[in-house]
Amino acid sequence: MDLLQAEATADLIDAGSPAQRRRALQQLERGLSDRLAALRAEILELEALIAYDIDFPEEDEGPVNPERVRAAWSAVRGRVADLLKTAPEGERLHEGALLVIAGRPNAGKSSLFNALLGTERAIVTEIPGTTRDAIEAHAVIEGFPFRLVDTAGLRDTDERIERLGIEVSRKYLAAADLVLFCEERDDPSREAFLAQVKAPVVVVRTKADVGGAGGGGVSVVTGAGLPELRRRLAEVAFGHLLALGDVEPVVTRARHRSALDRALAELEAFWRARAEGVDAAATATHLRAAVVALDDLIGAVTPEDVLDRVFAAFCVGK
Ligand SMILES: Nc1nc2c(ncn2[C@@H]2O[C@H](COP(=O)(O)OP(=O)(O)O)[C@@H](O)[C@H]2O)c(=O)[nH]1
Ligand SMILES: [Mg+2]
Contact at 8 Å (CB) between 164 and 155? Predict the structure, then answer.
């Protein structure tokens, strides 16, 4: 078992959603390990091409067509970069997407929070400003893990406790992976709000059962629009993974990302050195370093390492 498989075992134990389970199983079955082994082999082949240049330096062009080296380098560089692109959503899959529900007081945020959660967790009242603290809860939406946050409505207020709640809301908004903005009718503060938020925002019209708001909104009373909203949230938070499907490998941890970052940087450094006319043996050290980065990522481990480094950290048997 390699380190990636050991991590996958821990992920499988911790999985709280179908998407996390499928991903952990794919990694356990060497999906990511095999991909990395293939990349490693490609880099070694590139290194072998360079070795011909090292052995025959006196020949002008060398025995290897430079175009062949460029094509091999470009292909493997592209594949490492593609795998690295899965990191943001892969890590999100590991932690759960932070979904912050925002909007004016009384917009229906807490009601929607409860509806998405499937339990009455937040207090719902007709009195604006009821939710003063941010409440966080785990939810599974379309099979994907989310951390749902219900916030105090954003409004100017003189009330001290409510003001603290609004401050907390702003902190959550800054950390959000996506924001669900609720409005009962056209909210004049919406544009100003959208301009402040960096994360993608899904705007939803609430209380569709009253006031004849027309189609497209949601109602927690009739359930109208909730399936569409769930799909939309999954699409915004995990669209890249949805498009990739379950067969393509994905990286799910900061450890994976930093190792791939290193491999990519060494591949780039190799190309720069080559372009600057550095001698072939010296450029090849970058390829060797890229291979080492991938080896660290796959992580050949002994059974003792597995027990010490992974299972202990996840408190198996507690
Ligand atoms: N008819 C109807 N009323 C709703 C709906 N969603 C929320 N409400 C009502 O709107 C009021 C404010 O809801 P709440 O969830 O506390 O809003 P918040 O202040 O944004 O958290 C409450 O009286 C809810 O019962 C809905 O879909 N339909
Ligand atoms: Mg509320």
Answer: no
Place of tokens 């769930």: 230
- Predicted confidence (pLDDT) per residue in 152-201, tens digit: 665 545 555 555 556 667 788 889 999 999 999 888 888 888 888 899 99
* Ligand 2 center from residue 205 Cα (angstroms): 16
Nearest to 297, CA basis, from 261, 268, 273, 265: 261
Tell me, using a 6 A CB cutoff, whether residue 130 lines ligand 1: yes
Q: Determine phi and psi for 300, rounding to 5 degrees.
A: -70, 120
**Closest listed residue to residue 200, CA positions, set 113, 92, 124, 107:** 92
For ligand 2, the distance from its centroid to the CA atom of residue 208, given in whole angstroms, is 18
Which runs of consecutive H residues, i.e. helices, occur in the chain?
3-14, 18-28, 31-55, 66-85, 87-95, 109-117, 160-175, 190-196, 226-244, 254-275, 280-298, 303-305
Cα–Cα distance between 280 and 54 in angstroms, integer? Answer: 6
Query: Over the stretch 78-114, which tens digit does the pLDDT of each residue have?
Result: 999 999 999 999 999 999 999 999 888 889 999 999 9
- Give Cβ neighbours of residue 239 (< 8 Å, ≥ 6 apart): 89
Distance between Cα 14 and ligand 1 center (Å): 34
For ligand 1, whether the C-beta of 102 sits within 6 Å is no
Give the span between the Cα atoms of 104 and 183, in whole angstroms: 7
Total number of residues shown for the chain:
318
| Two structure tokens written together for 128 | 């604006």
- 7-48 pLDDT per residue, tens: 999 999 999 999 999 999 999 999 999 999 999 999 999 998
- The answer to whether the CB of 299 falls within 8 A of the CB of 2 is yes
| pTM of structure | 0.83
Alpha-carbon span 270 to 288, nearest angstrom: 10
